[in-house]
Batch of 4 targets.
Target 1
Amino acid sequence: MLKLFISKSESETEELLHFCEEKNISLTAQSLIYFEPVDFEVKEPFEILFFSSPRSVMFYLRLISISPNTIIASVGSSTGNLLRELGHSPSFEGEGSDPDSIAAEFEQFAAGKRVLFPLAEKSLRSISGRFSEAQIEEVKVYRTCPKETEIASQDIYVFTSPSNVEAFFSINTVPEGAQIISWGKSTATAIKKKGLISKMLSEPGISSLIEFLDSII
């Protein structure tokens, strides 16, 4: 039986589990990271509030509410959907999975306005890094922590973030001949730094992963 590992929890991979059951694949779904809140303070006024992930939304709202006159921006649909569920409608929502393209679009949208970025402690700053320090403020609202988890040998490894890559390789190795799949560019880069090559999904997501797996098994 083919063995597949993905660095996401079982609760996030129900569709993938059904696919694996149909294809007689043994699935190990295990996130290798967890998140902790960080106390923060916003020092300067801002006009736009840019959220780079659903987690940045939740950890920001833990301490501060969003005022009615704030322009809200979202990196993509999953973050935008959460904001709408919470009663906040984004005026900007990035499309696609290319951070450079989203950053370029948001730069135009935010021209001449001050932007607040709630981020993780070790954020890659894919969007905020494009702006001058005078135009933005970054607040660290949460930190990513690794779980030291031993993963049994697999045939296919799917890594969903650079943090999961780092956590995995802290105590695990990939056996020779195993296939590695990366969720996006930053994850593929993290894998490359480990001296390994991965296949990158055309779009990050379970549906895209299932389509790719179906083409190689």
Note: The domain at 2-32+151-216 is CATH 3.40.50.10090 (Rossmann fold).
Target 2
Amino acid sequence: MNLRVDVSGWMFSPDCDDEQGLEFARLLASAQDGGATVAECLQVASRIVEGDKASWHREWRRLAEASADRAEQALADGSRVTAASNWLRAINYYLASIHLFDTSDRRCPMVIEAMRKCAASYLRHAPAGGEIISIPWIEGRTLQAYLLQPAESRSASPMVICVGEPGHRKEEYLFKLARHAGERGLALLALDLWGEGSEDCGAEVIAHPEITTIFSRVLDHLSERNDIDLSRIAVLADGWGSSFVARGIAAEPRIAAAACDGGLWDFHQRRFLARRAAGRGMDVYPDVFVSRVARNIECPLLITLGERGWLKAEQAEEFVDRMRSDGRDVTLRLFTSAETASEQGHSDNPTLANEFIFDWLSARLGQILAACQASARH
């Protein structure tokens, strides 16, 4: 497979399928956080036949299996750090191998099982120990999550709950986000919507009336532990496929800080419909632009946006101005093309965006601790 380089980064040759090109760019970007190595990605790309999904699956899966085998050998040799690194890369390569396929494809179940086995091995041998937890949610569906504590934890830890939008899998947060949390003394709970033992993450799950109760169920479950500081729980939404994370935050007052769209997608839809109505001569009331979701979010909120993403910066600025005028604590961070992290979902440089996001979350949770300590002294 031929590659070329231009100002926007590594790409496949011009006639390559766009979906493959975007996924390859994601893999290269993930190398910064340990999700891949550039040399391995380039080598695999050279063996893939363009337009041939079977060769795409075969080559990434072969690399994933090699990384998993390398991890097991490193563990047997007593090299836990090397084993952990290879499990993380294997997870990412397994994800890439099925990226082009629906979950109903016969190749997916075995790959997903192998990927989850790597994740379980990584959690067992993580520096501070990790665990897989099951959280009751709705009838017939139990949420599964990965919990990682910071290495230097000596008391109840503040936590960031990362939940992916539809289609995202919690396994990717082990290499994408866990390092950022751990280095700042934050526990990480990685959560997705696939459910325990389920490969159903369709529209019926997103449209379920209990979708907004996810964080309430998670916090209820965490309240039974003594190693998590329930007064310092933050939420990070990964991906912008819907606003269900913002709706869940709006319904749960125990969340102390959040990085998500905050109802911006809802605002965008309402704004579009209002303009269409006005164009047809229909009355438009002033509050039609105000997101119902945003009005109910009480915690400090961070919204990050890439300049080259699907949403224009001026729309986000208008949304934030409206929230601030209503007394909301909102921070907007726009990543420009000049600094990278400017694509949709910051896919061109997730490391840069995540550094800012986790610094912001850590600072906000730290302010809560400082306020509690000051109150105790008086």
Note: The first strand starts at residue 3 and ends at 6.
Target 3
Amino acid sequence: MLLRRAEPVDAIAVARVHVRSWQVGYRGLLPDAYLDGLRAEERAERYNFASEDLREPATIVALDAGLICGFATTAPARDSDLPEYGELFALYVDPEWWGRGVGAALISAARERLLELRFRNAALWLLAGNARAERFYRIDGWLPDGLSRTDTVWDVTVNEVRWRRALDLGAG
């Protein structure tokens, strides 16, 4: 498996992973009709993998045999109460690759990138009720911090819970 920074040409492949992981992972958490209507072509138009601005989200992709099988996106935290935090904006793995270590490799690379940006702590927002993701993040040392919100993501209203963890070099 190869990890590298996403490039503009990767947009449709990343979008396919994004959509497939939502359609499988969020089944039962979001309406079926909504999930069935997601289109990678529409999602790909929203990505910007060309920016070199460290304040903007950056995406790392995981490739196996030249195919993108997962990605993680990080940047400085958006939450005003966490000014010194980095944020894991997204981590998705194609369902065909679940359980093969792709997510673990991506979360490690995401933590490394946030450390390179000089963050010592990180946050993420997790879809409420997503037990699979909760297990994954707990194993990596993340814990819910008690804050929740209702947000609109990809044109659907979702309930999310914030999780945090220290990014010390010895963790994970």
Note: The helical segments are 11-25, 32-36, 40-44, 102-116, 131-139.
Target 4
Amino acid sequence: MKLSHALMVAAFLVPMAFPAGLPAAEATLSQPGRIRVLVVTGGHGFEKPQFFQMFKDNPDITYEAVEHPNAHAKWRPEAAKSYDVMVLYDMWQPISEEAKADLLALLAAGKGLVVLHHAIASYQEWPEYAKIIGAKYYLAKTVVDGVEKPRSAYKHDVQFTIGIAPAPHPVTAGLKDFEIHDETYKWFDVARDVTPLLTATEPESGPVIGWAKTYAAARVVYIQLGHDHFAYENPAYRQLLRQAIRWTARKD
């Protein structure tokens, strides 16, 4: 029996029980009234000029880029005073207890968080990270509460349609369903407490691929899209990123 897309989406939002760039010096100058963004990369290759062009073209922000292994120093209390929102585009695993505590403190203080594409797979051995972002991508086959989870899958160069969830939200305001050429992910878990923003019916993709949520005092957005220049140069993707930054910064 064929399920409706709505039922497929609902079925995919399961409770999660998880098992126990550029040099840092590259930055735009701070400008009054603009959202200050820290862009974190490292651990996964990407097209740097085209990626950072999205931030250069965003009139709402100034930004600083930092790459692992130097990124966690930017979570220290003094360093964190220089930005309002973190954009994670990394895929990094090592994290100290100090860095964990620093990130949790930033979120408790309401620092905005936007998580893009492969950053869903960071910090596999830290269960709290999955709770922060609202999902778990499995880099290896895993057993969770007696249930075997397959390794999550990806596929490059897929042309597919992104559905905009019907419930109004500032992150998707003004957007309609759109086409994109991008990498897909599937077989990752999404928490029930997220607000779905983006959906897909492509068989190589999970049905819910973008969402908003809160963690402690922070607003959090995850957008699964964003592998290369085909996404970076897509006007709808750029609008999503811009509006996600604004919402997590509490500007909308």
Note: The chain has one domain: 5-248.
